[in-house]
Amino acid sequence: MDEKFAGAEAWVPSRGGLPKVEAGLADCRGCDLWENAEQVVPGDGPAKARMMLVGEQPGDVEDKAGRVFVGPAGRVLDKALVAAGIDRDDLYVTNAVKHFRFERRGKRRIHKTPAVGHIVACGPWLTRELEIVKPALVVVLGAVAARALIGTGFKVTEHRGEPVELPDGTAAVATVHPSAVVRSDEYRRDFGLFVDDLRAAAALLS
Q: Is 201 helix (H, G, I), strand (E, B) or coil?
């Protein structure tokens, strides 16, 4: 059974913009992930971006750098955005969970999928980011982001690239997390499919 946590509500600012969110994130103790992570990793991008990308959680590189999508998955994402004709500088990019969850194997820190309790506890931060940015479109990257934004019944593999709506009515497109492309045995095929999904998302804004 997934552990329940107090949740982030007490740390999420009800007023102010993204700088207030970033300041509050640094103090958040809404779940247990802050205890072992190096630091919180806030979202990045313009406050009024028309497109928001939401991933799972920071990885090892992001946790050390304090920046979102700068590791191997981030490099694939950047390459795919270029191929899809999307400027990353125009996007707001964030994660459903703001701290790195991992298990140690010797000196290595191995990614561990956030539990439902972590996703729920961190949810108020994502809700606040959506309230501030008010994107015209959200790109949902992978199953954890889909669980956070759409719900448990949504299957990314069955609906990737299709227009969907978030519960608040915001338009969205779901696709795989770029880390799935990094791990793929058929990289060229899966990278191409990922780019196709991003192009489908961009077309909805044109």
A: helix
